[in-house]
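Notes continue from the previous slide.

Worked example: a multi-chain complex. Inputs as given:
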Amino acid sequence: MSYYLSTVAIYFGVDLLAAWGLNMQFGWAGVPNFAFIIFQAIGAYVTAVLTLGPDTGANSYQHYVLGMQLPFPLPLLAAAAAGGVLSLVIGIIAMARLRRDYQAAVFLLIALIATQVVSGDVGLFNGSNGLAGVPQPLAGTLSSLSLSEYQWAYAGFVAVVCVITLLFLRRLGRSGWQRALRASRDDEAAAGALGLNVAALRLQVFVLGGAIAGLSGGLLVSFITAWSPGGWGYAETFAILTGIILGGVANNWGIFLGTFLVQIVFVEVPSFLPEFGYPGLIDKLEWILIGFMWLTVLLLRPRGIIPERRYKAGIDAAPQRNVSRV
Amino acid sequence: MVTWNIILQAVGFGLVTAAIVGIGSMGFTLQFGVTNILNISYGNILTVGAFAALLAQQAHLGLVVTIIAAPVAGAVATWILARTVFAAFARRHGGAFDLILVTLACSLIIQFSIDAAAQGQSFSFSFPVGSTVHIGPFVFTVLSLGLIATAAVVLGLLMAALHLTRMGKALRALSTDPKLARACGVPMRKILDLTWLVSGALAGLAGLVYVTNSLTVDAGAGLNFLVLVIAAALLGGAGSPIGAVLAALVVGIATEVVAAIGGSYYSQAAGLAILAVVLVARPTARTWGGTVRDEVTV
Amino acid sequence: MSVAYSKLSHRRRGAATVAGDALLDASDVRVRYGGVEAVGGASVRIAEPAVVGLIGPNGAGKSSFLAAIGGQAPIAGGTVLLGDHDVTRLPAHRRARLGIVRTFQTASVFDRLTVFENLLVAGVGYPGAALSRAVTGGARAKAATAAARADAVRVLDELDLRSLSDNYGSELSGGQRRLVEIARCLMCAPILLLLDEPMVGVAPHLVRRIGETCLRIRDSGVAIIIVEHALEVIEAYCDRVIVMAAGVVLDDGKYDDVMRNGSVRDAYLA
């Protein structure tokens, strides 16, 4: 049971980071990044190939680049950097001033291209088989811990990363920059006509969100020690988006709630139900349920359970009676 | 060794891929042009069509029924979906992007419902392939020639209907400027129903065409073509079947030629990349600070 | 007038006019959309602050001309000078920083920002919207925000909008949206204000309020170009009128003179 809880806690923390990252892009700036999952994936891959040794000897069943056996926490920092750099490259190429629905289609295409490239180029990240045997961080130093204790320590670490990220996001979320992003989300042309450089703003939030995505990928792969294209199909972005839309777009606590509901309640609770039908039926029913949940939320409470908070100006209500004379 | 022969053969294969993508794209562009909804669940209608054909085959209803079952199922499923779910959201003044999220949810529901009913299995599908035919340097099977011919016939029929019939012209008007069309007394309900039925039928047909090539039917049938279908439709211009077919040709042929020259794993990526690049560059996709059509017509 | 105009005197980065330069000099501007020429060589020169009306029948190219000056439409030919700055190739946001601010035909208030935030986002200034400032914060950021808040309150009071401060843009009526849009423009300390049909769908008393606001804005040193259909509005508030038809300027002068021009009357009847 202890393993189970610590595992769930770690998955929740990673999903939360990913959701906050996607929310910066989608909730704050209105960027329909349907390719989000590939930025988590690059973080995971980079962490993996920096933590693994070279692909020779015991590792020769898989082929990949680098293999530098770097110590913790360097691979994690590299994961964030990888997410950010890939976002910069894709952002410059793909974030032209497109209609939002065309933009969404372009991002879907990019997600597919990424899957094709990684699956096809076996020497890069071992193709569709993916990487395995990624060493867990500080496993040597902490070898005195039991497996359960190690997992809780890892969960604690993930929690710390989440808290730091939340503090960072709260700071950003109260800034003129975030307000400018929301303005460009609501009306891009008007924002430009007021002097806001919408393209630059969007690129900035895209890179930041991508870095957080990369970090979440690094944390995840260091825990589950394996990573392959099957785990980051384009539908995964929609799973993360579900937490955002359900819990509350552009509200960090709403997203906490939404991710909790989706990840914990929807995914974990059913696994406690008695097995019925054939194996795997419950998984499929979960996805169907998620679909219906989306529809319900979109219909009844499109801004989410805990929506974006209204900014109170804090000026008193008594209006000045005199409009200044000419 | 890459010879002209090999390249020409690749062009031939590309024509077949283009036919498969093209039929789907024509349906999609028709739907998107009129309704302004980027319908992600369109791919799942392909699956519905494929399964309809499979069921007809398993019930031994004969080849003709098997072929007809797919577009009929696609048409009915699309019409029901549009008139219930999409209409409910459009009534609440959902904008174009909000509807995309709705179609995403529908896509999940449809895909996993089919998967649940099919118990996660894939089924084999048989279809007469015919003998191999050599036309100059090209190598085709009778089936693949049939697919190309089908695509060509569908294109011809669509273009004729859109330009020569009253309903077709009304549909084009609705596709170009819905407000104006409404004001001019275009029979909105009839045209919209027609749009849903025809585009749904084309999606179902595309699903059938897809499985005649792959010969297996499962809940993911046609989904890996979905993004190509959408991209080709957008690239060719919303509402323009001939544009969709041209774009499909570009993708299909580019994909196969790159595969012939460079190896198959980069070929799909190349096709997608071409689409992505040209899509980004396409002027009508851009916003120029003017009004962008955000309302949907359901 | 008040707030934003006091900013004009210490306006950043010299879009200030050099003596002898006109405030706005747009000459022989051409705008092409696809194969259609929406504006075929239109010119306007505004030497001093004034309220200039831009009228013409539908399809005359008025909004396209405005868009060419504002930066929303690509200029296929001709030049646009703001003071001594050639803004012809500049994107819209750079022109706004130099002092060209505009409204849009469909009132473009930010729906999911409150009225106060609508003003803040325009007024904090481009440094205030910078990521670096968001991350580091600090005393300068706080001071800038406080100044912007003070400016926003003053602009709200000038247009008597204080009671709407905490309303979302989507919660406003049509006329209120127009006023907020103009208030937002004021926060940018414009030199040239472009108003695209600001009176459409606005109640008569609000029309008067907007008109009088325009006059006050002009008096504090801002040139305004206002595209409008209602000729009474043009007559009441404009110092000068430009008539466009079929993408070119037909006439340019005082309202009465222009209205007497035969070709202008023909253009409206055609």
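Summary box: Chain B touches chain C at residues 283, 288-291 (CB under 8 Å). Strands of chain B lie at 123-124, 132-135, 138-141, 216-217.
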